[in-house]
Amino acid sequence: MVIVALIGAGAVVVALQIDASDELPPGIPPQPAAITVNPQIRAVPPNAPEPTPTGVQQAIADAVRDPALGEFTGEISDALTGQTLWSEAPTEPRVPASNAKILTAAAALLDLPHDQRITTTVVAGPDGQVILKGAGDPTLSAQPTGADTFYTNPARIADLAAQIREAGVDVTSVAVDTSAFTGPTMERTWEDADIAGGDITPIESLIADGGRIEPLDEYSPRVADPAITAGEALAYALGVDAPVTEETAPGGGQVIAQVQSAPLVTRVNDMMRLSDNVLAETLSIELSVAQGGPASIAGGVAAIESSLARHGFDMSAVTLRDASGLSYANRVPATVLDTLMGAAAGPAQPLMRSLLDGLPVAGGTGTLTDRFDPETNPGAGWVRAKTGTLTGVSSLTGIVQTIDGRVLAFALMSGGTSPADARPALDDVAGELRECGCR
């Protein structure tokens, strides 16, 4: 042990002498230059080789025959030219699940200002009462100042409370005003069990943290009374013990506090990346109000359909009951989804381009974080797509850059099999597109 220690000590001395010397011993190559990071975004080459229908069909031939796909329809196209490269019953209306959110995002980005924000206010009521007036922003957060939030850069109830205190109001009670929205708060094809299941909360104009009981948990059960719950969060922040009630703020009442949501484009991207049903419904209502329509779930659906039809998309085979895809009564053909994705990725609709930013990245972000294993699927990191899942329904719509640098749009819709089986099969089809030049 002593000998080993002496040898080790000698090695350290030699190493220190070498490090301290300006010259390296003969035969030792010079130290290489330090690696420097040069982050940059490289544009897709405009002259990337164009895939052919035959090439695409050959590339995905085995993947599309997977029995796990069940009743399978789809379409693949060249985003630059719009040419259809492969299709299987693309005009058949199918249950889209959350792929319906692609229609919601497209309509919002086409017809609303991308920097539009929603303002939530507190209005002075009688005898020290303050009225929290919702305007349709479900990203409003009850999280304390500085704490993490589920949504990106949301408005906070804590900021409202701080403004009320600064105004010197001696608050005796808190009320909530939900009059900004009309109509039923639940679409009749939804299940009440979906509230406790974490899929939806009643769509009121005042909702905090998307109605989640656990604000940072994507799959948290939701509250059945989101407006009252938000009002209770404000009361707690103000130290008020009186029960929260529902009131209508007086017209022309004094606004004593207000906060603004993140811009529209941020909220659209949150909706897409997180597949957030509540945010999808409120975005559609925001669109309806901007078009002069009713501030209701049905009004939001009508606004999406009219907006996309006005911009030249064929909506004749589309049936929507909601903006989120939660309803099994929704029907959308694969060709509509593929056309929308191609329009966003290609030159046709530049206002839709930011839709791509919100798409989950295969094996990386959002609802694709745990899909596209990079050790087995070449689409990992290259596929960006919106997922859709209901019992017996799986869909995947997005874009992928081929090995030659060509961007393809795709819409893949599976039904009749377990999503646990169908999703890997859908991922395999998209992954094959990454690997091929498809010429």
TrEMBL record:
What does the UniProt keyword field contain? Answer: Carboxypeptidase, Hydrolase, Protease
| Signal peptide start-end | none
EC number from the UniProt entry = 3.4.16.4
Gene Ontology MF terms: serine-type D-Ala-D-Ala carboxypeptidase activity
Tell me the superkingdom of the source: Bacteria
| Enzyme type, top EC level | hydrolase
InterPro entries given for it?
Beta-lactam/transpept-like, Peptidase_S13
- Which SUPFAM superfamilies does the record cross-reference, listed alphabetically? beta-lactamase/transpeptidase-like (SSF56601)
UniProt keyword Hydrolase present: yes
Q: Which Pfam families match?
A: Peptidase_S13
The similarity annotation says:
Belongs to the peptidase S13 family.
Q: Which PANTHER family match?
A: D-ALANYL-D-ALANINE CARBOXYPEPTIDASE, PENICILLIN-SENSITIVE CARBOXYPEPTIDASE A
Name this protein carries in UniProt: D-alanyl-D-alanine carboxypeptidase/D-alanyl-D-alanine-endopeptidase
Q: Which organism is it from?
A: Gordonia sesuvii
